[in-house]
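Progress note, sequence design subtask.
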């Protein structure tokens, strides 16, 4: 019986290269698993997927200590972490991880209310004020049951975007939440202030203060999602050349503004 047991292949007795291949298969990094789903009513709106669980994806790491050591960095890098509890503080959770695990993280979504928007002011140049964090995607999901006065934080978000680094893609998802003044209107005002601030900091400030990161943007009307993609800072050029470069973006913004739903709230029209 003992000889028979010893002849049975054991996972931990396999060469490390084979174990790595198995873990690569287990944590396949499904790009569609992002903590969001599309509403089942046919509206196409993006919503929080309450059935999504990063813990369930990471469960194989709990088999034994060796598998955890072998696969934790791979698993962390391929798993989307969705934080839907408003009272969880991500900096506190990150502080419990090894620096290598923090560096491995690539995708986080955070459900927010006004307290979280106030916290953006203290982030500095890194998400959650954590220098070791380098994300491919960061998604900010509006809490569905909260009243959101996003116009109160437009300037804060613009200031954050000018200096935020180590985030490749940033998205704001309405999540069917109530946004005072219309979500798309806020996104358009945000884009307008990005360009206004950029011009001011380049040509009205001495010495010029160019952004650390420039962003391209796109509003998805169907999903009610506003996505920004990080790009290198734009080169310093003379003002006339700059205005020619920025002109297509201004034209796109005007088209988007014209497509806004009419809202009687003056805050939606004056950007305050």
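Output:
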């Amino acid at each position: 019986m003992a000889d028979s047991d010893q002849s049975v292949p054991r996972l931990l007795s396999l060469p490390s290269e084979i174990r790595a291949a198995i873990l690569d298969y287990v944590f396949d990094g499904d790009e569609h698993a992002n903590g969001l789903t599309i509403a089942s009513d046919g509206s196409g709106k993006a919503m929080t997927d309450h059935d999504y669980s990063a813990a369930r994806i990471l469960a194989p790491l709990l088999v034994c200590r060796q598998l955890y050591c072998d696969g934790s960095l791979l698993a962390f890098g391929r798993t989307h972490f969705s934080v839907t509890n408003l009272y969880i503080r991500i900096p506190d959770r990150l502080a419990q991880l090894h620096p290598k695990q923090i560096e491995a993280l690539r995708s986080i979504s955070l459900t927010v209310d006004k307290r979280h928007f106030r916290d953006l002011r203290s982030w500095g140049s890194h998400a959650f004020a954590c220098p070791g964090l380098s994300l491919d995607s960061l998604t900010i999901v509006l809490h569905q049951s909260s009243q959101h006065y996003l116009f109160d934080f437009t300037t804060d978000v613009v200031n954050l975007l000018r200096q935020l680094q180590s985030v490749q893609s940033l998205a704001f998802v309405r999540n069917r939440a109530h946004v005072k003044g219309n979500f798309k209107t806020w996104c358009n005002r945000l884009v307008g202030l990005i360009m206004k601030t950029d011009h001011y900091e380049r040509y009205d400030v001495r010495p010029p203060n160019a952004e650390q990161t420039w962003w391209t943007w796109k509003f998805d009307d169907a999903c009610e999602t506003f996505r920004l993609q990080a790009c290198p800072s734009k080169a310093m050029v003379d003002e006339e050349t700059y205005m020619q470069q920025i002109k297509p973006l201004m034209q796109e913004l005007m088209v988007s503004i014209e497509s806004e739903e009419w809202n009687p709230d003056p805050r939606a029209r004056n950007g305050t």
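The chain has one domain: 13-270. Work on this subtask will continue into the next period as scheduled.
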